[in-house]
Amino acid sequence: xxxxxxxxxxxxxVSSFGSRPRIHALKQAINAMKSDVLxxxxxxxxxxxxxxxxxxxxxxxxxxDFLAGDSHECAYGMNAVYDHGHHGNALLSCYPILSSRNxxxxxxxxxxxxxxxxxxxxxxxxxxxxxIHLGLFAGSRKRQTEALIEAVTNSAKPGDxxxxxxxxxxxxxxxSEELRARLGVNEVYDxxxxxxxxxxxxxxxxxxxxxxxxxxxFPAAMPFLQLDRIYVRGFKVESAxxxxxxxxxxxxxxxxxxxxxxxx
Length: 264
Prior knowledge:
The chain is of the alpha+beta class.
């Protein structure tokens, strides 16, 4: 069984500067990815002010329903709530979503964060999918990672196929070792080392292991920060890539991370 998956922070469907609607272009881009399962962050479930100001460019449907269209099912985890709307994480799947649960992991009043856990019935297995968006502060991320580990441990058996994806805001890569050790996961770029060029070769000659580091996904125009991740268990990673450049910079401040997985 092969799965093509994407994690993407869509910046609430508006441009980074000027908050101009980008949701229709995002839908075209997402359709072109041809992903089976999409892990989306900063999805605008409702925004009354944008709906009034951009009446012709703002869909009547919630963003998760609009992006899912007729090709995917969707689940939404509402995290941040305000007078004129709300936003959160979403999972889009071309396979049936058997269940979904959103867990509040907000660490303080200024950042609303959550874990959206869905079970997807793929052709050969039920896959546990966790959509995550961690906080901006290191202490918050550490505590939220503990909550993620507990959520995975309590809901998925050790041998169950598992995908955790989202915006970890972990630019110093402090969280990966804990997730690997306690959940038995790999990040998709752990297995992408053959593409890392001369530096990897030199480390091997020196008798050192490969330097493991996630993909650079922020800012989308010229990524240099490692914010977005896909961790998997029970899958072989066949490919992983970041889609970035001028076109993607117009859609969001993050670049999407896309991976092709095969069930072991």
